[in-house]
Design goal:
This protein is mainly alpha-helical and about 325 residues long. Helices cover about 40% and strands about 5% of the residues.
Length: about 325
């Protein structure tokens, strides 16, 4: 299985214009001359660079299995899903089903997993199967949509409930991510399933309508331990990064309310302005280390638990 690409073909420009040569028929190579577009800033040059990055070699067996998995998920064919997984398909693959003629569509949605596609297409059996095989419901596509967003946006409310029920350990994180995309989700739901389903969405999934401060109260504080206990290492101190003034105000108000509720003079956390920091995408393998190694989070195979600087043995 492979991909077919087509190359840009353009007439040679007038002298003094763009001197980009998309293809040298004598050598089969691509290049440009040191002329007007030596920096490849012209539109043709940019398009060609994108087109030339489209792979034209055959897929290997694992990549083929990934494509088969995506196709089977979209059809709702559970037997083919199982066969693809038996052939070593990656449960959270980003494989795409698309035909490119020349330049790729740079506006397309990327990083879509089979679980997201199953939620969008209403494939309940497939969703349950993928979750049992450790599909990650927290992953997000290039729009920051997770699988729950796909289910709600498609009007698949029953499937959204199944998704949350079958992944209880991450249910709150999934809901917070969906809350951030609430307006787009509700618009998509009304367009895909109609006004009545959209009204049901607002009624049955009220977290979408929460204010920033309510989201802080109902979700964020449930993710941390006792915020009054000092930490041994500053690296483990809780931090809240606000991306705008509204979030900063809500987070600060939530901290003060929690201090009052716990009768504490101060909490072991800081509210910070995200714009003052540079954020790096964490290495995916390390983020999923325990999951990939088949261990419970923080627990070693012998039943002991891993601490920040030590291993605590069960007795």
């Amino acid at each position: 299985m492979g991909a077919v690409t087509s190359h840009c073909v353009a007439d040679r420009p007038e002298e003094g214009g763009c001197t980009f040569d998309p293809h040298d028929a004598t050598t089969g190579e691509h290049g440009y001359s040191a002329g007007g577009c030596a920096q490849l800033e012209c539109e043709l040059g940019e398009q060609f660079l994108v087109a030339s990055n489209i792979r034209d070699d055959a897929l290997n067996d694992k990549e083929c299995a990934d494509v088969v998995l995506v196709q089977a998920v979209m059809r709702g064919d559970l037997e083919d899903v199982k066969k693809a997984m038996a052939n070593d398909a990656t449960v959270d693959t980003f494989a795409e089903i698309a035909l490119f003629r020349g330049v790729r569509d740079q506006q397309r949605i990327k990083y879509v997993t089979p679980l997201m596609r199953a939620c969008d297409c209403g494939r309940e059996e497939v969703i349950s199967y993928l979750l049992r095989h450790r599909a990650d419901p927290v992953r997000q596509d290039s729009r920051k949509f997770n699988a729950l967003c796909y289910a709600l946006g498609a009007g698949e409310l029953a499937l959204a409930r199944v998704l949350l029920e079958e992944s209880p350990h991450t249910a709150k994180m999934q809901q917070v991510a969906a809350w951030r995309q609430a307006e787009e989700i509700m618009d998509q739901c009304e367009e895909a399933a109609g006004h009545e389903v959209a009204a049901e969405l607002r009624k049955d999934f009220p977290f979408l309508l929460l204010t920033p401060q309510e989201i802080m109260e109902q979700f964020n504080w449930r993710f941390c331990g006792d915020p009054t206990v000092p930490v041994d290492d500053p690296a483990y101190q809780l931090r809240i990064y606000a991306v705008n003034t509204k979030q900063f105000t809500a987070a600060t108000a939530s901290v003060k309310a929690t201090e009052k509720r716990l009768n504490a003079t101060s909490l072991q956390l800081r509210v910070l302005n995200a714009s003052a920091f540079t954020f790096w995408k964490a290495e995916e393998y390390h983020q999923q280390y325990f999951k990939k190694s088949g261990e419970a989070c923080g627990q070693l195979k012998d039943g002991s638990r891993r601490g920040p600087n030590r291993v605590v043995r069960h007795v």
